[in-house]
Amino acid sequence: MQVQLTKEIIEQAFDEMGRLAADRGITIEIAVYGGSCLILASDIRSASADVDAVFLVGGKDVSEIADQVAARLGLPDNWINESVKRVAPPPGDPQPNLILAGEYPRAPNSIVGLRVHLPTPAYMLAMKILANRVVESGQALSEARALAQTLAAGPPLALAAIKSAVRQSANGTLDEALEREKLGQTALLSSQDFREGVTAWAAKRAAKFQGK
User: Fold this and answer.
1) Which of 12, 51, 96, 164 is deepest in the core (most CB within 10 A)?
2) For 93-97, which contacts have Cβ atoms below 8 Å and span 24 or more sequence positions?
3) Domain 153-203 annotated CATH 1.10.12
4) For residue 1, what pLDDT is reported?
């Protein structure tokens, strides 16, 4: 049975990597992309089959330590790999902005052995566009920013309800999905944002949603 890597399992593995690297007297660094990035940075995904990463510092050591962690925690041999390296960073953007997301192990007063970086939200969105949409060469990031701006201007409560419904639709029946949709719409009808949307539409102006 294939192991599904949840946030808890991934961070447990990162703690172990950090301890092993610190024992070697080194600090390794990786950038995490793909589904694992979304797991660590948001609640959009709950699990992944592996960790897509680019080994930024200490490549050989990262590989050796990852193998040790796999043996200790019972993870697949290739639980963390650099297969994403062929598309991250994409052509035209060789040095994406990275955010330091965590230092491991997380135990208080421990020596840092692993630093984990994540791409900026705009870059993550650009990666998804590259995977799901054809755009002109070099335009992925600008397309991602435009989409992000459109979503940011939208109704937060409705977007949250949509995301929740999509996530829950992975399990259950059609009748259960329709019931969730009905309950979600009913709740949104009493929101201030609903009234603002209707008012803005009637006045032919842009709506100003407040998430209330």
Assistant:
1) 51
2) 93/123, 93/126, 93/138, 93/140, 93/141, 96/120, 96/123, 97/123
3) yes
4) 52
